Amino acid sequence: MKEKSIVLNQAQIKQKIERISYEILENTFEEAEIFIGGISGNGILLANRIAEKLGEISTQKIQLFEITIDKDNPMSSEIILSIEDQELTGGTVIIVDDVINSGRTMLYAVRRILSNELKVLKVATLVNRTHRRFPVQADFVGTAISTTLKDNILVELGTSEMAFLV
Questions:
Q1: What is the average pLDDT score of the chain?
Q2: Confidence band (pLDDT; 50, 70, 90) for 27?
């Protein structure tokens, strides 16, 4: 079995979330309202933490919503938003996931969100891999790591928080 290498520890994850939140605020400070969409799983957990931090440092109205997607086979079922599409019209949306590995999940999530007429769409991730199969660029990145196509990043959020290279 391949050994895990720690990419981020719990304190570093907290620091990265805080930095991402400040970067989002710097880029959206003129907006009265922003939408933070977390991809189901760790993405929504991370999105919730970013939304909480933005609530502490900003006067913006923060609308948190979940993007439910089959990560293994995104075309197999409908991608569902926990918010009504018309609420996003003209909005500033940040899509959040814990890791951008191949870029496929994020690409399909972006495609689904773009079925709405938005003002701005940006992407935030805790860990951004530099080797991917799909052309997805994150706007807000906790840490970037060079990996091979065989490597994976595993993020554990909750009581014991770590990001590993496996």
A1: 87
A2: very high
What tokens does 28 get?
Answer: 């959206």
Beta strands in 9-119 (DSSP E): 33-39, 61-68, 80-81, 92-100
* Residue 129: Cβ within 10 Å count: 22
Mean pLDDT of 24-48: 95
In tens, the pLDDT along 67-113 reads 999 877 777 788 889 999 999 999 999 999 998 877 788 888 988 99
Cα(138)–Cα(123) distance, integer angstroms = 5
Residues pairing with 66 in the sheet: 38
Q: For residue 63, which of 95, 100, 33 has the smallest C-alpha distance?
A: 33
> What would the two tokens of residue 95 be?
């899509």
Distance CA 150, CA 34 (A): 36
The class that CATH gives domain 5-165 is alpha beta
* Alpha-carbon span 13 to 162, nearest angstrom: 7
pTM of the model: 0.87
Contact 57, 22 (CB under 8 A): yes
DSSP-assigned beta bridge partners for residue 8: 163
